[in-house]
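Thought: the user wants the 3D structure for the chain below. I'll pass the sequence to the structure tool as-is, report back what it returns, then summarize two notable features.
Action: structure_tool
Action Input:
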Amino acid sequence: MRMLDLIAKKRDGVEHSPEEIASIARWAASGEVPDYQLSAWLMAVRLNGMTRAETTAFTRAMASSGRHLDLHSRSGPLSGKVCAVDKHSTGGVGDGISIALAPLLAAAGLVVPMMSGRGLGHTGGTLDKLEAIRGFRVRMDIPKVGRILKKTGVCMFGQSGDLAPSDRKLYALRDATATVESRPLIVASILSKKLSEDLDALVLDVKCGCGAFFRSAAQARALASDLVRTADGLGLRCAALLTAMEEPLGRAVGNGVEVRQAVEILRGDFSAGDYAEVLFALGGKLMVLGRKAKHAREGALRLEALVRSGAALSKFKDMVRAHGGDPRTADDPERFLPVARLHREIRASKTGFLKRMDALLVGRAAVLLGAGRSRQEDAVDAGAGFLLKRKVGDAVRRGEIVAEAYASDADRLAQGVKLFSESLDVGTVRPRRRPVIISEIS
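Observation:
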């Protein structure tokens, strides 16, 4: 079997056998075939697609291309009776849900191995946000992940070189060859990493709108359906929520500011209503998939009770301590999380109702402030970002503060504020509030 023959086969629209799929994943992980051949095959997949059977086989093969957490075996760190769960988001602006959700689920008795990524472009990354906590370590090997899970029930970490290594290789090549948008490749990339965590259940937050990877609900729904069907075919209990990303989620966009928002909600402050709605909807669904509740509403109510009792915040503190971070972040986030030294208020240009706060432009403005990266090697300013004082649908008066911007450099601050201002539109008629949760796919 030669890679050249497999490229030609997919070029001609012929279905691969499971053995061929497994060989491609193995070669990608080992480096046995050159990048230009893998790139040619990726483009053939982008143009001709993959069948459901191919997608399932490819996901399984990528998950098996390296080590996995092996949580439930006799030698693993967890009892076989414990449910391991995770959540994946397709990415958005202000989407710091994972930081609150992971310890909240662990407080409910679930085990949460949450492998996350860094931000690129206008979307934020969970690892960058967690590193805003002084001392918090996200790079660790598999044994260390297991020890933290056994101790606290929750671990938030980055993808290591030995977890789904074929995905690491192919993801980098997709980014460089304009094949990122291929739905089968997206499905295999997301789910292969989750399978390597030895999960029992997974919930997906698939976003749509101007600030999301997919702008249209139809495209997002198609991806969500493919993800859920493929997960089911691999024996992984899975459901997806379609959520809106026309404006930033919550009231914080950045790294330190989003951690602060997560801490505040774990302390019982639900004033960021759309953030809280998505948090408890995803959590409630995972409580069902993790066999802790009969229906999502019951699961959400149990999670809310854990917030009110202080158990969720206590678990967050345990998680931070286990990762080497400063647990005082949970007690006084304003003091122990970074805030950039320069500050500017962004005010409404006229009186009326806030009609638009374009999530894509806000995300790009945050990158200009220093809160994100345009290239993978760019540094991130943990103290830069926006705090939103108004959301779409709110009444505003001319000169009233709509948002506050923070940066460490005057030029960056000016650029970020300018672009943020372009994201806003104020009109005379109050816009109809659109639901943040659009639909469920299960």
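Final Answer: Structure generated. Residues 339-427 form a domain with the Aldehyde Oxidoreductase; domain 3 fold (CATH 3.90.1170.30). Residues 210 and 407 are 25 Å apart (CA to CA).
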